[in-house]
Structures
1.
Amino acid sequence: MKKTLALILAACMSLSLVACGGGGDKSNTPPAGGSNAGTSQAGSQQPSSGGETKTVGIAMPTQSLERWNRDGAYLDEQFKAAGYNTIVTYSDNKNEQQVNDIQNMLSQGVDLLVIAAIDGNGLNTVMNDAGAAGIPVIAYDRLIMNDNSTYYVSFDNYTVGKLQGEYVRDALDLDNAAGPFNMEFTAGDPADNNAPFFFNGAMDVIKPYIDSGKVVVPSGQTAFDAVATDQWQTDVALDRAQNVLASFYADGTKLDAWLCSNDSTSMGVTQAVTQDYAGDNAVVITGQDGDVANLRNIKDGKQSMTVYKAVANEAVVTLDLAKAILEGKTADASLISASGWGFDCAYDTESYETTPGHKCPSFLLVPDVVTADNMEEKLVTPGYYKVGADGYLEATNG
Ligand code: BGC
């Protein structure tokens, strides 16, 4: 408790806040570790105010990518602590399984759904069922391309890519150095609406340098579809990186940077570069999420940066939004000013469309750049990670 308070105070002092200090119980610190295995159905300890306990269905994509375990655990823990029943599912990155899981939640009578979609275009049937039953849906992190998405909670996805592009620009000093520099791109899953946002944010920074000849892409692969990675899989990114290295760099061509949209793809690219790149220069490699294995690579100098998104805060926004919806209160920008959140969040009614012309009101949090130099300040001080006995960062468990 004391630690939590200290962390809240630290957050209040160190961040530029939309609102901090209002609501006593709003922490931006992660909840204690939490189990996250398979499907969990939780009984609540406290009834929600006004009688009957409400149930929230939380559908996460997979446990095979580190971040969704964190999201699932944070959401589960925070909803339970607020007195809700929860049903949590992970669907093994299989769209059909996620459809079934959500269908089951609807038949179990959930009052609200929080869904991180595997395929943003693959949930129409259940989304229409939810809409027909009047069940609100919060599209979590990834937009669901269906107009029954009541709200969207995520980070500013375009800015994630922009931060990656700017990092490469500054690391190579593209504005001043003579160049040319050789660079490659690896993007995310085409089924994930976020993936083009990340890619475009990065490409908008780098493209002028490609156009001017300061940056060269020896593979010629600069279109999203050419560099996308099915299901964000490490192995898929690894295979493509190995092919690119074998085809375009085996003759001794220097590789200066590889812009990767997230940590799972960065992991594959880093492995390929470590094993198969003949040059001895340090290659600038980007990422996103702050996965533990990638933080190790960053500390070891194999990956240059990651864009960190505090998913504990994403869960806080989701909980407060869900409460407002379930209590019939207004859920717009006023939620932010009344929140007492110790972190920045924007209310955006323009950027995200579920179908052409149909905008989804969105709450967007702010991503941050983490490098070897600021890792402890950005991740350990706020309580997201701790330093393990071996000096590398590991998840906090309480
Ligand atoms: C998330 C990223 C994550 C990726 C793969 C995206 O939708 O926003 O944080 O790296 O999915 O799981």
2.
Amino acid sequence: MAKSLALIGNPNCGKTTLFNALTGSNQYVGNWAGVTVEKKTGKLTGTDYEIVDLPGIYSLSPYSLEEKVTQDFLINDHPDAIINIIDGTNIERNLYLTVQLIELNMPMVIAVNMMDDVEAQGGHIDCDYLSELIGIPFIPISAKKNKNIDKVVAEIHHVINHQHIPCEINYNRETQNAINRIYSVIVRNCEVSEKPYPYYASKLLEGDFNVLNYIQLSDEQKSRIDAIAADYEKQSPYPDREALVADARYTYIEELVRKTVTKKDNGDGLSVSDKIDRIVTNRFLAFPVFAVIMLCMFLLTFGPVGTFLSDSIEKLFNDVLSPGVGRLLESASAPEWTIRLLTDGIIGGVGGVLVFLPQIAILFFCLSILEDSGYMARAAFLTDKFLRKIGLSGKSFIPMLMGFGCTTPAVMAARTQENISERRMTIMLTPFMSCGAKLPIYALFAGAFFGAYQGFVVFSMYILGLLTAIIMGAVFKKTLFKKNNAEFIMELPPYRMPLPGSVLKNTWEKTKGFIVKAGTVIFSMSVVIWLLQNFDLSLHMTVDSSESIFAAIGSFIAPIFKPLGFGQWQPAVSLLSGLVAKEAVVSTMSVLYSASGTAALTSAVSGVFTPLSAYAFMAFSLLYVPCISAFATIKREMGSWKWALGVAAIQTGTAYIVALLIYQIGSLFV
Ligand code: GDP
Ligand code: MG
């Protein structure tokens, strides 16, 4: 049978980086605690050993889901060896998990990571001495710089082949005594097997009754253990067995560290990270700094640079590609309809989406830098207090922010949330953030109806989305997710220089999805829309789109939108095609009103809408079901159709009510 290896360590200590180095895979790395939520598996390169990348944990106590998942995996699945990765720059805290793993009596290799940072800070860790003291291999590595990975692999083979297990740990006399006594209580009646009794003994002493899931104890045994623990607590004026055991572990670790680790004393005791944090998380400066960073990001994305690149792509499609292909086909005397399908349908449709590519790439690039450097963790920390009021926490911040770019990756980003109700709630609220694809809709209508105030009107859409999310959040908190009391314990990771390679890789990974969408969904969608509006119900080609299949469908659903102020068939089918991609709303309208160019379209909609119904239409577009790719992602991340359809229904219902209120209340005044 293939061997299995468990990769375990604290959050953010480089597990995934090491996992990628060992397996040659490309999992997501982020300077952000909690990046790995699900366990992932891969094969150790060149072998059939399976490596499982487990979620990051600080201890094997039974408090969080990750800790339980890891404990269960170690005890029930019994991997052949443990690879414990520890962050060398934070060795005391990391060893706290290590000593618990040692008690499991399993073959184990310890990779001391971030040695590049340790050395840069002028410190030293004597890994050879540590190996000698504990009796298992400690290997100094740098996962990021691929240093000593081969040694880790060699040691893995060695410990597995020799079934090499660690020496016992020696805690202080009282603790060791109590553990030994509990040990003899629990092994007495049980067959001696490969069960990790030292581990059970120390966990029972601690008062972690979760281990009772793994061993059967009689009531008599349990009361004897309680007596031993009560006896143990007598040594201190504070009878708290858990704290006493923790204290014993730390004392043991301090002793180890004293013998093997030297740290350079850097004057005021503040690291560079601490110094940056003094400014960036300062009580008065934190929010201004945050605002400036966000503003810069949005300016870069939606400001001159992003707009210039977008315009260039639009020109490429409209002025070069479309006429070029048209002329080419004409000269090959292709039939008129093929030319129209290719130029208006496909190039128009796909091009209409690809114009947003530069902006999306810039946004993802900025987010990658912020995330890799460690700033995102601070931003999440800052917004935590506010988000907590609506039942979320700082961890929802990133997905919500990404929602302004594109809902699909934003919904995926909610994976960093371990708490399931919080994660579901984030997924449900993120689509209310106005995504980039809705911008063309606002641009068209605001330009057509609100003249000098159009900037303000577009901005109001973003605010409307935010407000709706806040209100719906409060509603969900009271109804769907009542028991949700999300914990937010997030350690601030040290700032690190983002690796250009890793930033570019992250940006590309996310942008790629967008290009694929343009090439597949939008491509086929453009063909379908074109066919629907150029053929009538008897499947004959028609030049008058009011006779088309589209018109028939549109007239059927249009009455639903009458109370919202736009009961004609054209807006109705535009909204329908918006289900596939929001960008399609505008492109569908431009074909339906046979308007080529922005000016023609503007005058066309001016004849059909009023300022009030236009505003209601914008609000509906903002809030109704996200596009098909976002919907598919929601289905995948929520894990069931029930949730996905529920979300879609809630979104559309909300959109309808908000648009209805806008139109009906507005009608009283205008
Ligand atoms: P995980 O949460 O434990 O899976 O950690 P990741 O693999 O996502 O890495 C966390 C952060 O540590 C990322 O910013 C990595 O680039 C960084 N990192 C990983 N290994 C090293 C290393 O050897 N040296 C340094 N300086 N940084 C590292
Ligand atoms: Mg990870």
